[in-house]
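Appendix B. Chain record.
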Amino acid sequence: MRAGIGWDIHKTTPDRPLVLGGVRIPDAPGLLAHSDGDVLVHAIVDALIGAAGLGDIGNHFPDTDPALKGISGAAIAARVLQLLGGKGLRIVNVDCTVILERPRLEPHKAAIQASLARLFDLPPGDVNVKAKTYEKLGAVGRGEAIEAHAVVLLRRVHAEEPTPAKGAKSAAAARAAKSGAKGAAPAAKSSARKPAKPAPSAKAKKAPPAKATSRRGTTKRR
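Structure tokens predicted for this chain:
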């Protein structure tokens, strides 16, 4: 098992939509960034890259690369899953926190959780989303920024690790083949050992012996 911690923060701006965890949040200022500004996905990706021992998000997605201008959180997540697969790693679970003064995220948490599960190829139950405020303190408390933290767990996947369905089918096929071979052998063996029955007409063709009573009967008539 490998654990990772991620963090990110972006300034707010009224000129962009707010996207968190791949979900567009209405009636809220967006985030200033070279990408789409999905601070929550960025924090999770930062944690995943760290857990895999691959540096940090800036090493793989620098904000100086023109090709990454406006890249979505979904595209970043897809690339990171490829990196993890190349190292034989799989995500176990994600726990993340968004810190913002507004808007209130409670009505959107279920949608964000479902979206993150899809982005990172996880069951929804393996993704946890929390929302906090800074109690009006600092840049986040004044609504000038939104911050996100994430903790992830990875596990190594072995190439020879079978899937349960495949293993069950192989075992069932082996049992069926073994059972079929055992059933055919005794039948062939028993039929080979059976002796041939004599023809029913053999006894009928045998001539019966002559009876002495026929002579005695003839003598008496003389």
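Further analysis of this model is presented in Appendix C.
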